[in-house]
Every structure is written in structure tokens, then in C-alpha cells.
Write a sequence for this structure.
């Protein structure tokens, strides 16, 4: 935060031209000075690879997520979204590649970087024998916040996601949507600079989803950066300002939403990029009420 | 319809076998086991034919009643073990309930236990080859007995499904179900003493023969004894049992299909609990979380439940009093070792630690503190109690030293073990009797190595303590206490250091392993 030295402008690597922050991909991540660099992108993924057995889940992903952006990550099932986001948040070690959060190498300085990150992973359990309030408190204390701050923020967050009435209920008894909401509260409790959310709207009802979107928009307006993955193109098109399309472990397109969709709807563009559309003419017998 | 359900069950079995060759091996072993049980049952039935009359009938009634009770009660505890034909899966099909009831009852017999039970029951006439009339009655009784087993099992599981389906109830039942196994030795002794006298056996069989579980098997003995009124009444009881069971089952089935069971029974806890009381640091938070889980998670609660049982078992095993003194150090070891699979117990929820800027050492200390306090309090109470029971107050320092030494060594070693290996464990709320595939090798190796290392590191203290107790040497006892405290502290600090840095380096790999289990 306080390093006053100017960001070196040369950017030797081919920075994706579509992204909104040209020329700020530092190829050397000064390991001795793990303080965030002003002007660096909020999140820079450089050449990320990850294999599981014989299957290459992520095959060299480069992404630059500008500071202050609301970034959507879309892709078909099994595209490598969850794997990429896990590597970007310190939950999964990449086979190759670097992750820079505000210019600091995540895998070289995990403790410093994790203070800047708020994470909501998909497909994992929570410590669900705690009550909602205890779980958020736990997340805050693990981040090193003091008791008074944690208590105040827990109340605020539970109210914001609509769980004030269920604060004393065990998380194991929450519905799927409530579980997502309490996990989001856990991700926000330490006021991170970058928020990485994997499928945050899955199983969340429309009203809660609208509330969450508002929270996220306020957070971005306040200078934060949000990365969300989603299957719902419509949602990403309306909510995000940047988007990247991922399929089979590669980035197919990335940039501002308008650049990527190029005059069409994001869904049409997505289907065109990813392919695999099957026309529904074969099922003639489905028309049972034809007469 | 019945044929459909039977065929469905067979298809499910066959497809299950296709998933892995080990499943085939498992089923083959099960079938072999079933065949040997069947062979034993048949041999026993033929052999019973040579036993004198009242005893022959009593034995049949006793064994038959046990089999029926097993069918009725075991599925409640091991609920979900065979849910291949769960009636709730047929909700979306418009099936008449009558078909469903008959089909499920018959298909319940497919499988090793069902076939063994059915064939053995139908073979009961073998015991009555000298009395043709009784043999016919035995065949009728056998058919009724098998129906009582399968229909009764369906009735108990379906009627109690809403209760058993509740998380809390299931956890408590599953936890309690372990107790008989812990007490198995003493219980067997008691049963052997009670039944050893033929009089007790006859009395038990007499009562059971009038009960729903024993009536079908009492049919043939009554006929053989010429007690036709008794036979008629037993027939009535057996038939009434089956009719009532079918009624109860089909009533419960209607209710289940109309109102699907939900986990239900929300649990609430006011305030922040331990999170408000322990220091507001990452270590304090981990400790608060661990303390909460020791109370709310049955997997930990079982470790605590074992502690008061240990001295009781030892007292049973060596009534002269000396052996009971081992209970304190043993309790200390059990509680210290109880966190040896702590990361595996967290499961994928461990990501919470990984995503936060928590040092591995803070994670280790938080878990150690809670288990350590519990272990210290528990073992001191047990040591003082057993010393009082055996009236060996001179052994107090030695036993305290051994307990503290073993507790600290076990805590240190388990801090390393739990950071180095994860394997599939029962997740909270799962049936503790269900086995996890692929767990055995890693679990077994890490536990054995950990045991050996803990034993080696605790040996100096333990040897001093044993010498002190055997020789009644006070000086050696105090020496054991000092050595236990010092050596234990060294092991603990080293274990937490090593485990913490392993967690720092290999945390993401552990999480990845646990993600691949699901």
C-alpha cells in the first residue's frame, strides 16, 4: 500500500489486448517486498497449468483482472473454472504458472496475500456444526481481526445477507441457499481487496440474489474487485463489466463484456465460442398435444 | 409388478458389481460367508433332531427369536446400508401401494442375509424328521418366520423413518450402538453365566415363544408335544404379527410418500459459545472451534465416552485390583491420540483454514490445547479414582507422570500424523458402521506408525512409572512425573513445530486429497 516507487512500465509478456489494464503485468514479482503495488491488476494469472492424473484441467490460462472490476468467468461444465479459481486463491497448487494479487505472488507469500483475498469456493463443506454467527466469527478471528470488529461485522453481514433470524441455527440445518449466503458473509468479514466467488448464486432465491448483487456492486463501487464464476450468461451480462470465456482449460475470449459479446447477447456469443449446440428437432414425439 | 421389483433389485446388484472388481470380491466373500453360515445352520438343524424334545424346541425358539430381532433392529442402526429399493424413490411413479408392499417384501429377501435366513427357516422341518406332524408345522412356522423377518424389518424402518431420519436422533443412536461392542466381553460373560443353567434357557424360551418374535418357531414344538391349543394360539400370534406389520408398514408408507422425510429438528445454540470466551486470536479461534466440535460432533464425543468405560472394563478383567491402575495412562493416551485424524475429520471444510492467513502452528496449537485440557482433566480424574479404588496412594505420582507423559507425547505425534496423512473418514452425521472405500491402507499405516512412535517416545516415562508402581518406590514415582512432564513437553513442542510447517507446505495437497474423496 505504501510503496511510493512508480510501477515499471515495460511489459515484455504478451498481455491480452482486450483486457482493460494494458501494460501492467509485472513479470518479476519482487519476492523481498510483499506489499501490494499500486496500479497492479487486482489479480493476474500467468500461464497456469494443472493436471489431475491424465486429464489436463487447466492448460495455460492467462488472465488479467483489473483493479476495481466486476469480472465474470463463464464456461461449460468441466471447463476448469473451479480449478482456476482454486489456484488463484491458494486452495490448489498449480503445476506451473504464477498468481499475482495486486502485484504480490500468492504462492511465494501466501500469508500476506490471503489477507487481501476473500474466497467462496464451490463443492466444499463448511464447519457446519457451528451456528451461522459462530462461523462468521470464526472466519473473522482466523483473519486476525479483533473481537469487537468481528462482532460488529458479523452482525452487519448477517443482516445484509438476511440471516439475522437464523444466526443461532447450526449451519448444517441451513438450506443450500442459506449456506451460500453465510459462506459469502465469511468471505467478506475481513474486508478483502479482492473477492473470488465460485458459483455464488447457485441455489440462492431471486430476492437474496438481488441483495447479494447489491452488496457486490457497493463493494466494487468502494474500490474492491469481484471475480465470480457462473453458468448463467444473462446474469453475468447484466452484472459484470468484464468477462472471460473458458472452455477445456483455455481462455477463449476475455475483456469487457461489450468487447466479448461483440454486439450480440453473451449467450449467443458463448455458444458460438464453445460450440456443441444440438438442435432439438429429433424429439418429434414430445409434441403430445399437437391436435 | 413383484417380478419388476425383484428384477430391478438384481439389476442394481449387477451394476454395482460392474463398478469395480473389488465389489465382486466383496460379494463373493459375502456369499462364501453366507454359504458357510447356511451350512452351519443346516448341520445344526439336523443335529438338533437328535436332541431331546424340550431342549430342542427351546433352542429353536431362542435362535429364531434372535434372528427376527436382528432383522427388525439392525436396519434401524445401520439405516441406509441397503437403500437400493427405498420406497421414496418410487414416489414419482403411480404405483398401487399393494404391489409396492408385496414387491418390496419379496425383494427384501434378495441378498446374502435374506437368502440365508429364508433357506434356513424353510429347513427347520429337518429337526423334526421323527415327528411328521411337527415337521409340517415347522414348515408353516418357517414361512411365517421369514415373513415376520422381512415385513417386520420394512415396518420398523418405515414407521421410524421420520424419527431416525432426524440428524440428532441418528447420531445418538449410532453413538450408543457402539457401546455394546465396547462392553462385548463383560456382556458375554453375564449372558453365559445366566444362560449356563438350562433352567434359565428354558424360562427365556418359554416367554419368547408367546411373543411376536418367537411364536412362529414355537409352532412345531407345541405340535410335537401334542399341545394343539398352544399351537393354534401361536399360529394366531404369528399371523396377527404379520398382518399388523403389513398394516403399520403400509400406513407409514402412505405417510412417507405423501410427506417426504426431511432432516428436521433444527438445532440452535444461543450466543457465540466458546468463541466469546477464548482469546480472540487465530489459535484461540481454532481452539474455540475444536471445543465446540468436541461437544457437538459425535465422532469426538465417542472418544470422551470411552474414558469412563476404560476403568470399568479393566476392573472387570482383573478383579484383584492391580490392572485398573493402567486406566489413567490409557485414558490419557486415547484422548491425546484422538486428534490424530483431525484434518481428515474437518474434511473439505479445512479450506477455511487454508484460505485464511493462518500459520500451521496456530492451527496445531488450537487443536492441541482443547484435547490437552480434556485429556489432562480426564486422566487425572481417572488416575485419582483408580488409585482410590485400588488403595495405592503411593502410586499417585508415578501414574500422574505416566499419564502426562503419554498425553503430551500422543498430542505431539498426532499433530504430525494429522498434518501428513488424510484418508476418508465418516463425515459428521454419517453412520459410523458404514465403511469408506480406500480408507484402510493409509489409515492403518499412519495409525500403526503413530502408535509405535508415541510408544517409543513415551517409553522412558512408562518404564519408570511401572517400576515405581511394582516396587512401590516413591522416589522413582516422582522421577517418572518429572521425566513425563519434561520429555512430554519436548515431544509436544517438536510435534507442533513439525506438524505446523508440514501444514504450511502441504495444506493445499491435503485439501486436494480430501476433495478427491467425494
Amino acid at each position: 500500500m505504501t510503496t511510493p516507487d512508480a510501477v515499471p512500465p515495460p511489459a515484455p509478456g504478451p498481455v491480452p489486448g482486450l483486457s482493460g489494464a494494458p501494460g501492467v503485468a509485472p513479470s518479476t514479482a519482487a519476492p523481498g517486498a510483499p506489499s501490494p503495488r499500486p496500479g497492479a491488476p487486482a489479480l493476474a494469472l500467468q500461464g497456469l497449468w494443472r493436471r489431475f492424473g491424465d486429464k489436463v484441467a487447466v492448460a495455460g490460462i492467462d488472465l488479467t483482472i483489473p483493479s476495481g472490476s466486476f469480472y465474470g468467468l463463464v464456461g461449460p461444465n468441466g471447463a476448469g473454472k473451479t480449478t482456476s479459481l482454486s489456484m488463484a486463491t491458494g486452495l490448489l497448487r498449480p503445476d506451473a504458472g504464477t498468481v499475482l494479487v495486486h502485484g504480490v505472488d500468492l504462492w511465494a507469500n501466501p500469508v500476506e496475500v490471503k489477507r487481501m483475498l476473500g474466497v467462496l469456493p464451490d463443492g466444499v463443506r463448511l464447519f457446519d456444526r457451528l451456528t451461522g454467527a459462530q462461523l462468521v466469527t470464526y472466519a473473522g478471528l482466523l483473519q486476525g481481526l479483533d473481537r469487537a470488529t468481528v462482532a460488529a461485522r458479523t452482525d452487519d453481514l448477517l443482516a445484509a445477507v438476511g440471516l439475522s433470524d437464523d444466526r443461532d441455527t447450526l449451519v448444517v440445518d441451513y438450506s443450500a441457499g442459506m449456506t451460500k449466503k453465510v459462506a459469502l458473509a465469511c468471505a467478506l468479514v475481513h474486508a478483502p481487496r479482492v473477492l473470488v466467488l465460485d458459483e455464488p448464486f447457485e441455489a440462492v432465491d431471486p430476492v437474496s440474489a438481488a441483495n447479494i448483487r447489491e452488496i457486490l456492486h457497493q463493494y466494487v463501487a468502494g474500490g474492491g474487485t469481484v471475480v465470480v464464476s457462473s453458468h448463467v450468461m444473462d446474469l453475468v451480462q447484466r452484472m459484470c463489466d468484464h468477462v472471460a470465456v473458458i472452455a477445456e482449460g483455455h481462455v477463449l475470449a476475455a475483456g469487457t463484456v461489450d468487447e466479448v459479446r461483440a454486439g450480440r447477447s453473451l449467450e449467443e456469443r458463448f455458444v458460438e465460442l464453445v460450440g456443441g449446440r444440438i438442435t432439438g428437432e429429433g424429439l418429434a414425439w414430445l409434441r403430445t398435444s399437437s391436435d | 409388478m413383484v417380478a419388476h421389483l425383484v428384477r430391478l433389485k438384481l439389476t442394481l446388484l449387477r451394476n454395482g458389481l460392474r463398478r469395480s472388481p473389488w465389489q465382486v470380491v466383496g460379494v463373493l466373500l459375502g456369499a462364501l460367508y453366507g454359504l458357510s453360515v447356511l451350512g452351519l445352520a443346516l448341520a445344526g438343524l439336523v443335529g438338533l433332531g437328535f436332541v431331546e424334545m424340550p431342549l430342542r424346541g427351546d433352542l429353536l425358539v431362542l435362535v429364531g427369536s434372535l434372528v427376527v430381532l436382528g432383522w427388525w433392529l439392525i436396519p434401524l442402526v445401520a439405516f441406509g446400508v441397503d437403500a437400493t429399493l427405498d420406497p421414496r424413490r418410487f414416489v414419482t411413479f403411480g404405483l398401487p401401494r399393494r404391489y409396492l408392499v408385496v414387491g418390496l417384501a419379496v425383494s427384501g429377501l434378495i441378498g446374502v442375509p435374506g437368502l440365508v435366513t429364508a433357506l434356513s427357516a424353510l429347513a427347520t422341518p429337518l429337526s423334526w424328521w421323527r415327528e411328521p406332524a411337527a415337521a409340517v408345522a415347522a414348515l408353516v412356522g418357517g414361512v411365517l418366520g421369514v415373513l415376520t423377518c422381512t415385513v417386520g424389518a420394512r415396518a420398523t424402518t418405515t414407521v421410524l423413518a421420520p424419527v431416525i431420519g432426524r440428524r440428532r436422533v441418528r447420531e445418538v443412536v449410532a453413538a450408543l450402538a457402539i457401546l455394546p461392542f465396547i462392553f462385548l466381553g463383560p456382556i458375554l460373560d453375564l449372558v453365559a453365566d445366566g444362560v449356563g443353567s438350562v433352567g434359565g434357557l428354558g424360562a427365556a424360551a418359554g416367554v419368547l415363544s408367546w411373543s411376536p418374535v418367537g411364536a412362529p418357531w414355537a409352532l412345531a414344538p407345541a405340535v410335537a408335544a401334542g399341545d394343539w391349543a398352544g399351537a393354534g394360539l401361536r399360529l394366531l400370534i404369528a399371523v396377527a404379527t404379520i398382518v399388523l406389520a403389513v398394516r403399520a408398514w403400509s400406513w407409514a408408507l402412505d405417510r412417507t410418500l405423501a410427506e417426504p422425510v426431511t432432516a428436521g429438528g433444527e438445532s440452535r445454540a444461543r450466543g457465540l459459545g466458546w468463541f466469546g470466551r477464548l482469546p480472540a486470536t487465530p489459535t484461540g479461534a481454532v481452539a474455540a472451534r475444536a471445543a465446540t466440535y468436541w461437544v457437538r460432533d459425535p465422532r469426538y464425543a465417542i472418544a470422551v465416552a470411552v474414558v469412563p468405560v476404560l476403568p470399568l472394563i479393566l476392573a472387570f478383567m482383573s478383579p484383584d485390583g492391580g490392572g485398573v491402575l493402567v486406566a489413567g495412562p490409557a485414558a490419557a493416551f486415547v484422548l491425546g491420540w484422538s486428534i490424530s485424524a483431525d484434518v481428515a475429520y474437518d474434511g473439505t471444510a479445512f479450506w477455511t483454514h487454508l484460505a485464511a492467513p493462518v500459520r500451521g502452528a496456530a492451527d496445531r496449537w488450537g487443536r492441541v490445547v482443547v484435547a490437552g485440557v480434556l485429556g489432562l482433566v480426564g486422566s487425572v480424574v481417572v488416575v485419582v479414582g483408580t488409585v482410590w479404588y485400588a488403595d495405592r496412594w503411593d502410586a499417585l505420582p508415578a501414574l500422574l507422570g505416566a499419564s502426562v507423559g503419554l498425553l503430551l507425547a500422543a498430542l505431539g505425534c498426532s499433530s504430525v500424523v494429522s498434518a501428513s496423512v488424510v484418508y476418508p473418514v465418516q463425515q459428521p452425521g454419517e453412520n459410523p458402521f458404514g465403511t469408506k472405500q480406500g480408507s484402510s491402507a493409509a489409515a492403518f499405516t499412519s495409525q500403526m506408525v503413530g502408535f509405535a512412535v508415541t510408544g517409543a517416545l513415551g517409553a522412558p516415562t512408562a518404564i519408570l512409572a511401572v517400576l515405581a508402581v511394582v516396587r512401590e518406590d516413591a522416589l522413582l514415582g516422582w522421577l517418572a512425573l518429572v521425566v513425563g512432564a519434561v520429555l512430554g513437553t519436548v515431544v509436544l513442542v517438536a510435534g507442533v513445530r513439525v506438524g505446523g510447517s508440514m501444514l504450511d507446505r502441504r495444506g493445499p495437497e491435503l485439501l486436494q486429497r480430501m476433495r478427491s474423496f467425494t
User: Anything to note?
Assistant: Residues 275-517 of chain B form one domain. Chain B touches chain A through 46 residues (CB under 8 Å). The CA atoms of residues 152 and 245 of chain B lie 6 Å apart.
